[in-house]
């Protein structure tokens, strides 16, 4: 199993999340960042939302990888990123 899914409550602003886990007795800290992309109105057309999301993801810090784009909530869309690990095995798997 590569991923663990956690439900995070609806957020009003950006948050950084750290989770300590043990896998086979080895402790790791996983770091996540949830960012809220604001829309001008909840009536923003779909094409504009897609273009905005593409820009935010493309311009985001490359030390963080996109994990999930949440469902739109009125005039905002939550996006979750995970900090890339320094583990060479994980980088190898990510490149495949």
How is this structure best described in words?
There is one protein chain. This protein has helices spanning 46-59, 88-95, and strands at 15-23, 26-38, 64-69, 76-83. It has 2 helices and 4 strands, in the order E-E-H-E-E-H. It is elongated, with a radius of gyration of 15 Å. The two termini are 17 Å apart. A 4-stranded antiparallel beta sheet has the order 1-2-4-3. The chain is an alpha+beta fold and 96 residues long. It has one domain (15-95).
Secondary-structure blueprint:
Blueprint: E1 15-23, E2 26-38, H1 46-59, E3 64-69, E4 76-83, H2 88-95
Antiparallel strand pairs: 1-2, 2-4, 3-4
Helix/strand class: alpha+beta
The side-by-side strand order for the widest beta sheet comes to 1-2-4-3
- Largest sheet data: 4 strands, antiparallel
Number of helices: 2
Give the tags:
single chain, alpha+beta, four-stranded antiparallel beta sheet, 96 residues, 2 helices, elongated, 38% strand, 23% helix, 4 strands
Structure, briefly:
This protein is an alpha+beta fold. The chain is 23% helix and 38% strand.
């Amino acid at each position: 199993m590569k991923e663990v899914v956690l439900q995070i409550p609806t957020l009003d602003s950006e948050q950084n999340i750290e989770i300590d886990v043990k896998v086979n007795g080895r402790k790791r800290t996983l770091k996540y960042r949830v960012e809220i992309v604001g829309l001008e109105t909840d009536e923003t057309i779909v094409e504009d939302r897609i273009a905005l999301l593409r820009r935010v993801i493309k311009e985001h810090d490359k030390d963080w990888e996109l994990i999930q784009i949440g469902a739109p909530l009125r005039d905002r869309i939550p996006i979750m990123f995970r900090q890339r690990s320094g583990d060479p095995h994980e980088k190898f798997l990510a490149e495949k």
